[in-house]
Amino acid sequence: MNPIQLLTIGGPDHPGVTAALTDALARHAVNVLDIGQAVIHDRLSLGLLLEIPEAEDRKALKKELLFIAHEQGLHLDFSDITAEAYEAWVAQEGKPRFIVTLLGRKLSAANIAHLAAVAARHGVNIDGITRLSGRFSLRDDNPHKRACIEFSLRGEVGNEEQLRQDLLAITRDDEVDLAFQADDLYRRHRRLVVFDMDSTLIQCEVIDELARAAGTHDEVAAITEAAMRGEIPFDDSFRRRLATLEGLDVAVLERIADQLPITEGADRLITTLKKLGYKVGILSGGFSYFANRLKERWGLDCVSANELDIENGRLTGRVKGEIVNGEKKAELLQKMAAGYGFDMRQTVAVGDGANDLPMLSIAGLGIAFHAKPLVRERARHSISTLGLDGILYLLGVRDREVPA
Fold it and tell me: Could you tell me the CA-to-CA distances from 22 to 9, 28, 35, 36, 362 in Å, in that order?
């Protein structure tokens, strides 16, 4: 077996460094078994695992590399790797891999330390750390700045669910969000993304806005609170709230639709998803009149929501057809995926309420967005610190790949 060495290089980064070093290695017929590079604030950190032919003069190679390093202002370090150590490294190739995405408005050393401590406690190694978010100025007090780091973990895990729970526990004390995913083929090939509408794509509950216009807001709010306490089933509460809108002029719908408050990051997220070829839709317990307005805004592929019944230009206080409740949302998501020929593991579902949990639980990636505590606890992933475009990080998309 030919000698193996690990070459690590550090110093100021500038064009030509890698070219000069690898050109020298090529003259000595060296094989590169592994390579990794990172540049932080114009400082280079480069590592190469090298197989050096037995016939080559290693002293001459080392002397040549040191001369290049001196010219380039770099520091070099050489480490001999035994055959046993190399084979042990190769044997780790098949171990499970996971992606942990840490995101917030700003990330601290404490946030990273907490994550690393959980990984160490479960015996998994951090193989790689990548910043997905762009650079932001410390002089600019931007309330919408984003920070995201992606960690690649590797190792056998005795209890994967416990590892996930321990990682998510970090979010209860730190002002960050965290997602834990298996690093598999499906994570990199999501194809269908569906959103709840009210309090997810838009920052309001449309039925509340309609009730204000009808003068029944207090009555609707009381029914909603009773439903949240579990005193009224969802379908019954929905019918009772809707009944208070009987006689409302349809002109009110147009006015509300024109003023829908779009959630931070929604435009950037959906525009990017469409450019990347994702199918994007709405699955809402709200109303199709407003969902279709959003469909037109973003060129969405599919919409399923409740259709308001209208007679003589006024609401009847009923809907047409079956109510889109939590179970119906899950059923419709499965039908959408099947219709496009996608595996359910290629789907992403995003919502904020308890009636979103059924679809969040069956999606390949289910995300509770700025959700109530109960929903955050039950969903496998949640975002509470950033706008909707934070979802791009969970898909592995970097800021530099997306227009501002």
Answer: 12, 10, 11, 13, 48
**Is 198 assigned a catalytic role?**
yes
**Contact 349/201 with Cβ under 8 angstroms?**
no
Q: Is 131 helix (H, G, I), strand (E, B) or coil?
A: strand
Whole-prediction pTM: 0.90
Assign a CATH topology to domain 4-90: Alpha-Beta Plaits (3.30.70)
Residue of 198, 356, 389, 399 with catalytic role: 198
Structure tokens at 347: 């789907």
Average of per-residue pLDDT across 40-61? 94
Fold classification of 95-182 is: Alpha-Beta Plaits (3.30.70)
Strands 347-351 and 365-369: parallel
How far is Cα of residue 323 from the mean position of the Cα atoms in its chain?
A: 30
Coil, helix or strand for 319?
Answer: strand
C-alpha distances (whole Å) from 27 to each of 52, 56, 68 are 11, 10, 14
Task: Tell me if the domain spanning 192-207+261-398 has CATH number 3.40.50.1000.
Answer: yes
Render pLDDT for 238-263 as a digit per residue (tens, 0 to 9): 999 999 999 999 999 999 999 999 99
Phi-psi region of 80 (alpha: psi -120 to 50; beta: other; left: phi over 0): beta
DSSP reduced 3-state for 150: strand
Domain parsing of the chain, residue ranges = 4-90, 95-182, 192-207+261-398
Please identify which of the residues 166, 177, 196, 399 carries the catalytic annotation. 196
Judge if 4-90 and 192-207+261-398 fold alike in CATH terms: no
Kindly state the average pLDDT of the residues 91-108.
92
pLDDT at 374: 84
